[in-house]
Amino acid sequence: MTEMNRQWVLKSRPSGMVQPENFDWVEAPIPVPRQGEILVRNYYLSFEPAQRGWLNDVPSYVPPVAIGEVMRSAALGEVIESKHPDYQVGDIVTGTFGWQDYIATDGSGMFPITKVSSQDPLTYPLHIYGITGLTAYFGMMEVAKPEPGDVFVVSGAAGATGSVAGQIAKILGCKVIGIAGGEAKCRWLMETAKFDHAIDYKGENVGARLAELCPDGINVFFDNVGGPILDAVLAKLALGARVALCGGISSGYTASDLPPGPSNYMQLVIRRSTMQGFLLLDYKDRYAEGVAQLREWVTAGKIHVEADVAIGLENCPETLTGLFQGKNFGKQLLKIADPA
Questions:
Q1: pTM for the whole thing?
Q2: Residue 207: strand, helix, or coil
Q3: How many whole angstroms separate alpha carbon 325 and alpha carbon 306?
């Protein structure tokens, strides 16, 4: 055990892209668990674009991270001391533990603590069986509702959620088209994730390629990006299309200087289509159902799991910024210690 608890705490609220100077690196004593608490040693941290939104002092589905508070994030670690009857020393757990080495917690929080099953690879509960995989699962099954033969398009297709959503669409019998940035990501979508087509928004005209690949229109769009990509897809909707709004990474999740809304939104009227947003928290009572189905698909080789693992707690701010620069392949994790 190290002598101190290294932490990143919020120093100032970013006005645009998050910067390292928005955080302070501090060292505090390792917390001592009280009765009903456990002490967790973090091994891996999870990164998602929503973390940038949590830094804005605006009403949202969770309170903003407070100035001086440890930066919020999901994490995976090991119980090294327990004063809680439901947890034993040596249990591997996930929870909202934040950018730090250690946390003393009673198990409550935005995403309550969950024990990690020994049948799964260590990090899977942070991505395919965690927030990103479950977001893809419920967004697909409850909002997008793809049907066999549908033309399905997903943006942010090489990211943690988009890649899983596209593979679920393939399982369900859709023609799957992924939009991603760069030749390497598009090649991965075709060769590894087994999409039918991939569009490189950095090197191709998205609207023209959609017109070529979807002559009869798009039945389902799973959007992680927003902005011009959403506009291009709205212009190509089929009658009765469904648009599931999962994220808007093109906005940077900032509270100011937001891009204009889609100019093609009237296509929803013309094509009698629906556009619906959702949050994973809407399905918190059904997480076990989602994990069970995802595990079945992964075990059968129907979903390829991809993770991009950065190293070192000191690199947290840069790792979060990298999400908005399209640097990650699949789920972005950061390893801060080796399991005991």
A1: 0.91
A2: helix
A3: 18
